[in-house]
Amino acid sequence: MLHGSVQLVLTGTRTVLTAGEAAEFDTSTAHWIGNARDDLPAETIAIYGQQGERVHITEV
């Protein structure tokens, strides 16, 4: 996350990510990502690769 916050839903589990945090997950897992706030835009970076067996949430 660069700015703002997003909701990340993975198979029914909801997590809010804010600026400085990151998540890694297998994209074959059912997922949804959306802005967590209507009044503040969010900016993210997405990197896709062959790895990603499970979710990792890291706070920087």
Write up what this structure looks like.
It is a single chain. It contains no helices and 5 strands. The protein is an all-beta fold and 60 residues long. The strands form 2 sheets. The protein has a 3-stranded antiparallel β-sheet, with no helix packed on it. A two-stranded antiparallel ribbon has the order 3-5. Strand 1 and strand 2 (13-18) form a beta hairpin. The chain is globular and about 35 Å long. It has one domain (5-59).
Helix content: under 10%
How many helical elements? 0
Shape: globular
**How many domains in all?**
1
Q: Kindly name the structural category.
A: mainly beta
- Strands, total number: 5
- Please indicate the percent range of residues in DSSP E strands (runs of 2 or more): 35-45%
The N- and C-terminal alpha carbons lie at a distance of 10 Å
Radius of gyration, whole Å: 11 Å
Mind describing the biggest β-sheet? Answer: 3 strands, antiparallel
Q: What is the arithmetic mean of pLDDT? A: 85
Q: Largest sheet, order of strands side by side?
A: 2-1-4
Task: Tell me the series of helices and strands, N- to C-terminal.
Answer: EEEEE
Q: Runs with pLDDT <50, length 5+? A: none
